[in-house]
Amino acid sequence: MPPVPPGYELPLLLFGGFRTLIDRLHEELARQGHADARPAHGFALQAIGPAGVTASELGRRLGVSKQAAGKTVDRLVRLGYVERAASEADARAKVVRLTPLGLDLLNRSAAIFDELRSEWVRALGADQVATVEAALRAVVPSGLRVDAVGWFAAE
């Protein structure tokens, strides 16, 4: 029976897998015309979603301050991924919405992730990948979170 690996290896291996997928994603996004996209941008675009959000709500969803969310929005506006618009519910409020370029980035990301998963299936087998996914679903609290940006940020 092989020795039991030290407990600290598990989070490092999970992070390594995550990092490998994200790095490969961004290599391909750059080839497809999104060279300025960064991992934090993907989390922000997911948090903004199809309905749009205020900067305050974006900060809550990302786990960062309103000011940090505002800086992220400024960068995404400069890159053309989002726009600020007047809220239909409150004319005083500004809503951050995805632009067609932002939607293109998300759609390309989804397609690339499908291909990356297929590569894992070719390398490990469909049953093994399904087992890994099922095991992670069993131990990860329900609901996918996009607040990694705030979680990784230094205080």
TrEMBL record:
Domain named HTH marR-type is located at: 7-141
State the PROSITE patterns in the record: HTH_MARR_2
Its Gene Ontology molecular function terms?
DNA binding; DNA-binding transcription factor activity
Taxonomy, superkingdom: Bacteria
Which one GO biological process term can you cite for this protein?
A: response to stress
Could you tell me which InterPro entries the record lists for this protein?
Answer: ArsR-like_HTH, HTH_MarR-typ, MarR/SlyA-like, WH-like_DNA-bd_sf, WH_DNA-bd_sf
Keywords carried by this UniProt record:
DNA-binding
Q: What is this protein called?
A: DNA-binding MarR family transcriptional regulator
